[in-house]
Amino acid sequence: MNWKKIIKDKENQPAVGTYSDWKEQIAKECFYQCIYCSINEAQFGGIDHYHIEHYKPKSIERFKILENDICNLFYSCPICNRFKSYDWPNDADDLDIICYPDPSTYDYSDLFVVNSLDYKVYGTYVSTKYMTERLYLNRPQLLYERRESFLKQREENVTKALEVLQDKINNPEDFTLLKESLSGIIQLNKTLQKRSSIRPYKLAEIRK
Ligand SMILES: [Zn+2]
Questions:
Q1: Chain-centre distance of CA 182, in angstroms?
Q2: Which end of the chain has less neighbouring CB within 10 Å, N or C?
Q3: How far, in Å, CA of 165 to CA of 178, rounded?
Q4: Cα-to-centroid distance, 76 and ligand 1 (Å)
């Protein structure tokens, strides 16, 4: 998972227009990816499919004032956006209570762990456990994308190991290296074989 802390600065408040005019700027500030699930817009239909996320929901009366406040505007995929909707369990920004940690205060990478075997994310705080459930951060589409990025990393590691092996192949006594490289290739191949076992978009999962 590739979460990043979002830098927000009042100085970047656009002088004209309203939030829907600032999508390009907001996308850039958020690294062109969903602040919650970290899926990149390129993997999910591009900027047209992405939403401007009012972190403090504009439908809650006391947050109406933040409707066009650049510091309250983020970028999210349509699915996370729909799941979060106007949910706002708590004003306090405390990791150990049920709330949404502010993505411009925290780097979400520090608040979740990702299991490299089942590709699921686990919140390490009360707040991020809640987020994981509420936003379905282990929906099949995300497991699929995470597995692809793990595979990419593993492919790179195997390639590197093969290159090292190629250099050392003249030394037949170096069996440890040979064993490690072969085991990497076998593991990669097994993961590749499972590639089709996830259907990224199950309607029942995303229409709860
Ligand atoms: Zn998302």
A1: 31
A2: C
A3: 7
A4: 5
Whether 58 is covered by a domain: the verdict is yes
Q: Please count the structural domains in the chain.
A: 2
List residues, by chain if needed, whose CB lies under 5 Å from ion ligand 1. 34, 36-37, 77, 80
Q: How far is the CA of 43 from the centre of ligand 1 (A)?
A: 11
Q: Give distance in angstroms: CA of 83 to centre of ligand 1.
A: 9
Distance in Å, CA 87 to ligand 1 centroid: 15
Cβ atoms of 38 and 3 closer than 8 Å: yes
> Looking at 12-16, 30-34, 144-148, which range is the least confident one?
144-148
Residue 114 forms part of a structural domain? no
pTM beyond 0.90: the answer is no
